[in-house]
Prior knowledge:
By secondary structure, this protein is α/β, with parallel strands linked by helices. It has one domain (about 1-498): Amidase signature (AS) domain (Amidase signature (AS) enzymes, Alpha-Beta Complex). It is about 40% helix and about 15% strand. It has helices at about 1-5, 10-15, 25-35, 50-65, 105-115, 160-170, 185-190, 225-235, 280-295, 310-325, 345-355, 360-370, 380-400, 420, 425-435, 440-445, 470-485, 495, and strands at about 45, 75-80, 115-120, 150, 155, 175-180, 195-200, 220-225, 265-270, 300-305, 405-410, 445-455, 460-465. It has an eleven-stranded mixed beta sheet with strand order 1-3-2-6-8-7-12-13-11-9-10, with helices on both faces. Strands 4-5 form a two-stranded antiparallel ribbon. Helix 6 packs parallel to helix 7. It is globular and about 65 Å long. The structure holds glutamine. Glutamine binds near residues 128, 180 and 430. Glutamine binds near residues 160, 179, 184 and 319.
Amino acid sequence: MNKLLLSSISVLNQVYKEKATGPVELVKACFDRIEKTECLNAYIKTTKDIAKKQACEANNRFTTGERLSALDGVPIAVKDNICTEGITTTCASKMLLNFVPTYNATVYKRLKDAGAILMGKTNMDEFAMGSSTIQSFFGPSKNPYGETFDDDNFYITGGSSGGSAVAVATGSCFAAIGSDTGGSVRNPASHCGVVGLKPTYGVISRYGLIPLAESLDTVGIFTRTINDCVIVFNHIAGPDDLDSTARKRIDLPIRLPTKPNLNGLKIGIPREFQSTHLMNEVKQTWDDVAKILKDQGAEVSEVSIPNVILSQMCYNVVNCCAISSNMARYDGIRYGHRAENAENSIEELYAKTRTEAFNDVVKSRIIAGNYFLLNENYEKYYVQATRLRRLIANDFDQVFENVHMMLTPTNLSTAPSVKEFLLHDDRSRTAMEDVYTLSANLVGVPALSIPIKLSKDKLPISIQLIGPNCSERALFSVAKVIEGIVKFPLQCLDNRYL
Ligand code: GLN
């Protein structure tokens, strides 16, 4: 059973088919795993009763030979900023501690309808602002690959969807959902050694995802293998009348060739992503993967996306402006936290409520956003940022006229320890984590993080493929070739959590 927990959805389906085990038994084993890995703090809330019920229903279906889909009976986890009817959805904030949505996000509804089993809601940086998952009201998630898990001495998971990454890496579920506004799926996927997809903007419905910055927000997927990522993608992607920004036409389902052929494939290595801050081992891995692709018949060449170096500045303005508006709804009136002893005026109630319930990261972004949007600053910052965003998008368009996709690292380094992370202020350390991921959100294109190897300190190193709009199929195909050759040691965590 333990080996099965770190295997893939495809293997699980085979096991189900042979009736070697059933969903009820499997879900029990997954909850044992959650208990054994409790110190990693992957979940804000586990949903044992719901999971048990869903597992029984799947069991019953299996006995009558009725399978809903390839996700029937498959344990999954969902980030706690995605609405789940009747189940608290906190955004890891005191503000939404008792918030119980009355409806399901489209992604969760689709997973549920496909027969997937909800194990729980995963930990995250408050309101998805961060790259560490240490900025959670519920305490930090911890990297399963770290040596120690003490509160003042652990390795960060990356963020903001750190809980989802840990849940998948440690085998308490087979897939997890996260959100990626600037890297929040790819970053923790990379640090925790799992596959992480940020889809093309609008390909997966955002309905029911609590917004951070709508024009950048995407719902993303964590799995242990590329094939699994395709399976989940095929179930949750596609048009949705409830999300006006959802794309109307998407080629689904994606089916990958069993033996993808890379002859004629053109891969670009963006010059601007070479950096003195890039850890040697990560740089070496990037070069090694480029060589692997070359050996498989791809043409690898340097490309340039000159304006990408301004992504961080552009992102900061666009992101904070959206946040200052989106966070305005948390005022203590209709739902969420409400300060006590604030009866003198409505202003006092707003101020006390928001002072008490938001963390410093959220507060600082609200202030920055309001500053950028002041009458005298709007043109100088916001309009300028949207222009810059267009220039970055133009760079990408131009590159994709000549290459099919770009190969980049996902992170500058392996997961830092919390001590190292906290040496700098949150904003600049977060910015360092995001250098390679932000631009895909600004431009809207898909990007996929793939685990490659463990560093000499036994921490995962991953690379990223970025393609033009709606190129998920191509990204998955190339990633599958890489995955087959590098054989990331997925099962190595098992010895720790058996
Ligand atoms: N690290 C980025 C930020 O803090 C991205 C977060 C995200 O993708 N949700 O804004």
